[in-house]
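Issue: ligand-bound run for flavin-adenine dinucleotide - logging full I/O for the record.

Environment: standard queue, default settings, no custom constraints.

Inputs:
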Amino acid sequence: MSIPALTPFPAVVIGGGISGLACAYRLQQAGIPVLLLDAGSRCGGVISTREIDGFRFELGPQSFLSTEPLLKLIEGLGLNDELLRADSRAPRYILLGGKLIPAPLAPPSLLTTRLLGPRTKWRLFTEIFRRTHPPAADESIASFVRRKFGDELLDRLVAPFVSGIYAGDPERLSLRAAFPKLHEFEAKYGSILRGAMKSRPAKGAPRSGLCSFRDGMETLPRALGARLGDTLQTETTVAEVRRGKTNGKSWFELDVTYQDHHETLTASAVIVAAPADAASEILKGVSKTFAAPFARIDYAPVAVVAAGYRRDHVRHAGNGFGFLVPRSEGLHILGTVWNSSLFPGRAPEEMACFTSFAGGATDPELCELSEDEIAETACGEVEQVLGITGKPVTRMVHCHARALPQYNLGHSETVSALAAATSSVPGLFLTGNYLSGPAIGACVEQSNQTADAARIYLASIGVAGVGAVAHA
Ligand SMILES: Cc1cc2nc3c(=O)[nH]c(=O)nc-3n(C[C@H](O)[C@H](O)[C@H](O)COP(=O)(O)OP(=O)(O)OC[C@H]3O[C@@H](n4cnc5c(N)ncnc54)[C@H](O)[C@@H]3O)c2cc1C
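Outputs:
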């Protein structure tokens, strides 16, 4: 480990997933000497692209939504030429009675879809005339959808989409925390449809779409890591942070382990970008107030199974984004992405590849099986749905024991408690996917804001070279 000898170090970021990388890069861009420490052997956290037998598999996120802060970051890194945009008309399917039915992606197709019966369609289209108010208590997504539209919409559309984002259980996920816009629409306009119409983007405004990179999702963390250079130290675990104060100035001490080597660093500002359980452990020496809210954040396990097949063995055309599976279909897979149809360069000629997700909050036991058992289960189910006659030519499995934070009932209060605990420790900041959305775009936006707050703090305590002007 070659940590630059700055004492105290102006800013140390703990955790080099996309949240910590984006935060450290923004600080570096603002001219602030920063150190990014990650426990893994490479940066990127759950973002992981693997190449095998001519296939390019994603063992974490498959794509990202092109939000403005993310596109700005990509442009700043000179990655515009690497960017791939998926066809926005690529159909998504829902499995119903063992058959793939196109999911309605726009309001007119809600009228004609075979997924919903006339009663649900009627409730959807007349919702604008039935003003309602959200209950005072935090409401689950399931309860909200049942109250407004009924069970059919919940089972066939909403629950599968929710599992596609959170791998979560709609009976436990909080509408206010997981989909704040929907909660706001009902509170403000009494109707989701009215709210959606009122907040429609202006004509001509850029629309976000699904993207990846020519060489896969890991392109982004690799580029950030390259820009950060020696600022990024991998295989470096932070065990604990403590507070210190001399002559009225606060600083932090960090116990750091690199392989078998232990060291104590000092920093003026610390940004914790590790997952909630690790953050809780790291911060127990700073204040006892962090433990309880962190302990309330559950994570869902997710198994990712990527498999390549001979194209002529796949009966279904496989053109589109992929399919989602309602729990009532009785399968283990939550959904499958058709990577080779979505982006070029994912499979060799005459081959196709698919990535399935299984487990999640509604089937966590699946992730306790062996990797072979998980692969057999997931591939068997995909083969049945897509009418695949041969076995995979290659496959890869990765189990994320703690894949995605669950924005369950009470999550907004948990985040407020963490904000209160953090604000009572000057110089300490939190960022990560458990705060304002798990999507990569949300992580980048959250981390930009955190970096800006850290920069303003450093300027306020007079750390040399740090100006007070907020980052553009
Ligand atoms: C299977 C899966 C599929 C997904 N699909 C999508 C998708 O299609 N689109 C999308 O937008 N999002 C998707 N997401 C969500 C998104 O990828 C994540 O929310 C996001 O990448 C998390 O980034 P992060 O930096 O907050 O956390 P992480 O990626 O978990 O990074 C945390 C980092 O902290 C480090 N760390 C932990 N403890 C310590 C310590 N003590 N000291 C030092 N370092 C430590 C770890 O090594 C790790 O690198 C998916 C997530 C998963 C798991």
